[in-house]
Amino acid sequence: MHITLKQLQIFRTVAELQSYTQAARQLYLTQPAVSMQIKQLEEEVGMPVFDRIGKKIQLTDAGRELLQHARNIHIQLEEAQQSMEELRGIKRGRLHLTMASTANYFTPRLLAGFCREYPDIQISLSVANRAGLLQALEQNTTDMVIMGEPPTTMPLAAEIFMENPLVIVAPPGHRLAGKKNITLKEVAREHFIIREIGSGTRAAVERFLSTHDLERPQSIEMNSSEAIKQAVQAGLGLGVVSMHTLEMELTLKRLIVLNVEDFPIMRHWRLVYRKDRHFSPVSQAFHDYVLEHTSELLPSFTT
Amino acid sequence: MHITLKQLQIFRTVAELQSYTQAARQLYLTQPAVSMQIKQLEEEVGMPVFDRIGKKIQLTDAGRELLQHARNIHIQLEEAQQSMEELRGIKRGRLHLTMASTANYFTPRLLAGFCREYPDIQISLSVANRAGLLQALEQNTTDMVIMGEPPTTMPLAAEIFMENPLVIVAPPGHRLAGKKNITLKEVAREHFIIREIGSGTRAAVERFLSTHDLERPQSIEMNSSEAIKQAVQAGLGLGVVSMHTLEMELTLKRLIVLNVEDFPIMRHWRLVYRKDRHFSPVSQAFHDYVLEHTSELLPSFTT
DNA sequence: GTCACCCATAAATTCACCTTATAGGATGAG
DNA sequence: CTCATCCTATAAGGTGAATTTATGGGTGAC
């Protein structure tokens, strides 16, 4: 393989114009340059591609055949370049997101807006627990992760784009319902249903307890926010969950948020990605979109 | 357009092996050469095609897309090269022949044999009068011409491959039928039907007459051998035609060949082509075939 | 930490390509 | 036929790109 694109390009031009000299003019080259390139091409091909008939030149059979292929290759190359330009212009592309399961309550809105703006970007969204998020980052199988606290074991960039208030919920008839400024001591006597070890919410709660020098109250572990909310409704105890997961339950008055001192625990949603991963234009677009449209995402709450 | 095949080739290899170093090894290059080519490619594309993740590299989205196109282009190029090789090996190709109309009586056999040997060569055959042959040669619209005397106005190569005896024919009941060693004087008194001016046969007859210092006898002109043979059968006179056109008429005893002194006029069939035209492998093959198989073409005659 | 491995960068060399200059062949006008 | 013109081929020289050697930096395994 020693045929070059330059050779084919010059060859096509010469074949079209039926003249070395004119081809040279059109390609902003000198005539000898064209002569030499064609000569080399002929050497590669093993046969002449043009007949030199006096002043004029004519394609040989081999030349005619080669011209077909040269045109095909040219078209392929143009398609490739077009593709690259589209990708560069963020018209097209794929975006792979991974998110913590609790982010499920606002990401659909986020993605809906993004999709409207960039209709040709194909999005795939994976939901994972903390271990899964970590693995995705480690193996670089995702473009971006939506999560709370990023791990510190990797060189990651993390940008806060939204608050994530953790609140204590209770069933509507609870004895503390409606009470203002409930003290931590008061709630500490209650039963709690909290997330399993490894969950970000659980970690946040533990951190909160230790900073306020409290023992963890009696508690049941469950591995999903949905399950916790159901359990709280059933009267098994109080729950600590992200406020963002409560929209429906609050509207339907199935759950209430207790007004406890030092609550809500303010955590944050972050956009996390590897520092060493190059942003694709699509990733960049999503990144920018999220930081810009974050405010529109929050439904109005009554604390 | 500044992407080169070299870049794409290296890119494909790197993408396949997931390593600059190994790609370099496989391509018999050094690692920096690979680094730089990829770097340039990325500049052309406007985006990185690989993520450098620690020791490993991974295709970016743009890289994945580009890889598709790079592979397509590679395939196209291989097809082109395959085509060229086939042409070089004469497996395939087109052959355009042009022949004098009187050559019609043996070329079919010639072509049949050639086609059997090279079944993938597509042959097109044009029949033309002398003016047409000349034009075809002048405009270089044919690969080879089968004719008698080539013109001298062009730089042509002409190779004799077969004799072309011109004989005098008469209807079976003619008074000279069966007579041995008829003198020229005797036949000179007959009426003749001969080809029109411009025809090769006519030219040959004129030359013959002038070398033997004879006047042209009374004659009717006709512009095809077929017409002449019909006319001779109808008793309009004697004819001078190529013996090769007579196979059927002789077999069916519709015409006879007179045994005249200095006859047959021995002319020749030639393979004619422009000296400045490059032989395609196909043309070369035909040329060789004709010179080799010429003897098989001649049906056995009884003069 | 040390070693091995891999990619990036720098400088020097090699090589491909282009340009200028010139020759040769063909064509068409006088 | 001869000259002028147009086109392509060839030669020599210069420029820039690609490659190599040498080296640096970062990562992961031990």
How does the SSE layout of this entry go?
The structure is a homodimer of 303-residue chains.
Chain A: H1 5-17, H2 20-27, H3 31-45, E1 50-53, E2 56-59, H4 61-88, E3 93-100, H5 107-117, E4 121-128, H6 130-138, E5 144-147, E6 156-170, H7 184-188, E7 192-195, H8 200-211, E8 219-222, H9 225-233, E9 238-242, H10 247-251, E10 256-257, E11 265-274, H11 281-297
Parallel strand pairs in A: 3-4, 3-5, 7-8, 7-9
Antiparallel strand pairs in A: 1-2, 5-11, 6-9, 6-10, 6-11
Chain A binds a DNA duplex (30 and 30 nucleotides) through helix 3.
Describe this structure in words.
Two copies of one chain form a homodimer. Chain A has 303 residues and is an alpha/beta fold. Chain A folds into three domains: 5-68, Orthogonal Bundle (Arc Repressor Mutant, subunit A), CATH 1.10.10; 90-162 and 268-297, D-Maltodextrin-Binding Protein, domain 2 (3-Layer(aba) Sandwich), CATH 3.40.190; 164-267, Periplasmic binding protein-like II (D-Maltodextrin-Binding Protein, domain 2), CATH 3.40.190. The first copy, chain A, has eleven helices and eleven strands. The first copy, chain A, has helices spanning 5-17, 20-27, 31-45, 61-88, 107-117, 130-138, 184-188, 200-211, 225-233, 247-251, 281-297; strands spanning 50-53, 56-59, 93-100, 121-128, 144-147, 156-170, 192-195, 219-222, 238-242, 256-257, 265-274. In chain A, the strands form two sheets. In chain A, strands 3, 4, 5, 6, 7, 8, 9, 10 and 11 form a nine-stranded mixed beta sheet that branches. In chain A, α1 crosses α3. Chain A is rod-shaped and about 105 Å long. The model of chain A has no long low-confidence stretch (mean pLDDT 87). Chain A binds chain B through residues 1, 3-6, 9, 45-48, 51-54, 58, 60-62, 65-66, 69-70, 72-73, 76-77, 79-81, 83-85, 87-88, 93-94, 140, 274, 276-278, 280-282, and chain B through 1, 3-6, 9, 45-48, 51-54, 58, 60-62, 65-66, 69-70, 72-73, 76-77, 79-81, 83-85, 87-88, 93-94, 140, 274, 276-278, 280-282. The first copy, chain A, binds a DNA duplex (30 and 30 nucleotides) through α3.
